[in-house]
TrEMBL record:
Name of this chain's protein: Sarcoplasmic calcium-binding protein-like
Presence of keyword Calcium: yes
Keywords: Calcium
Species, as recorded: Lingula anatina (Brachiopod)
Origin superkingdom: Eukaryota
Key word Calcium present: yes
Lineage: Eukaryota, Metazoa, Spiralia, Lophotrochozoa, Brachiopoda
């Protein structure tokens, strides 16, 4: 949680004295890039382990397709994109996402610069 707050504080540093401040897309990206290569990268495994626990609603150690839809819903991502993202994460195709599968996908999504990464739709497709 602390690291997530660090990220938002870095992004929102201009906002402290200005309640009406809105980050532009460029500001958001440059601030995110600045913080991503510092504490955020080191804390990422911790962060995504906790995310996994949050998305594994029934606590059985796997993210089911229904739980994945709930994860998309909680982020405001249209749930019709869930199945495709789920399929990319479920690398062994057993119909469930293990912690390792999730961590692999989330890490690749966050840090890979490969435009053709199978995990590029981890949070749904980019808007046109
Ligand atoms: Ca579960
Ligand atoms: Ca699997």
């Amino acid at each position: 949680m602390k690291h997530r707050v660090d990220v938002w504080e870095a992004i929102g540093k201009e906002a402290k004295n200005n309640e009406a401040y809105k980050a532009s897309e460029d500001e958001f990206i440059s601030d995110l890039l600045a913080v991503i290569n510092t504490t955020y990268r080191a804390s990422f495994p911790d962060l995504i382990n906790r995310d996994f626990d949050g998305y594994d609603i029934d606590g059985d150690g796997f993210i089911s397709p229904k739980e994945h839809e709930a994860f998309f819903y909680s982020w405001g991502i249209p749930t019709n994109y869930s199945a495709e993202a789920f399929k990319a994460l479920d690398t062994d195709g057993d119909g469930l996402i293990t912690r390792d599968e999730y961590i692999q996908g989330a890490t690749d999504f966050m840090f890979s610069e490969d435009e053709n990464s199978p995990y590029k739709n981890f949070l749904g497709p980019l808007l046109e």
